[in-house]
Design goal:
Blueprint (H helix, E strand, L loop, with lengths): L15 E10 L2 E7 L3 H7 L4 E4 L6 E3 L11 E4 L5 E5 L9 E5 L24 E4 L3 H12 L4 E4 L16 E2 L2 E2 H14 L3 E4 L14
Parallel strand pairs: 1-7, 8-9, 9-12
Antiparallel strand pairs: 1-2, 3-4, 5-6, 5-7, 10-11
Length: about 210
Amino acid sequence: MAADQSRRVDAGGAIDRSTPIELVVDGTTLTGFAGDTVASALIANGRLRVGDSIYRGRPRGILSAGVEEPNAFVLVHGDHDESMLPATTLELVPGLDVRLLDGIGVLDQKPDPAEYDKMHVHADVAVVGAGPAGLAAARAAAATGARVVLFEQDFRLGGSLLASPTEVVEGVPAAQWAEQVRAELEAAPEVRVLTRTTAFGSYDNNHL
């Protein structure tokens, strides 16, 4: 297993450093840990260049930590390849094999064999974003017995709290508070928590 972690800090964050995970990037095996995204694993392993600008070929690195990432996109190899995923939102799992995407994309002309799930969810209260305000709002609404749907674009709840190691909420560390609220919401019978879900529009008749 490759073990170059020259840019990884020794402690902190949402990384479980006792659980290493191998990932393959462009045919090269790198080491990550549980809790890493592809982007954080790349940075920890010293892989700072993720591609070049489309027209002038200038080097591009990872710019952000979420879905707004403009540079680091990957294709995930598998039974059915999945493309154009931000490396900043793709968490490490065993067997992950990705290719960094560079230049102008080309549409795949092959039929898409994948099946896509969909559902229609009705709620009394919809909360977009599971940062501190969203978690507090969802918990307060759930306490009234309302049907609540909480949307979070990331795979973890907490938002800014995940990057606030010294912050305290209601007398406990911020990340611990976020986990406590998550557990409360998931145990509530009328609450649905949707991670990896982006609310991209608000339409007539209260449709999201």
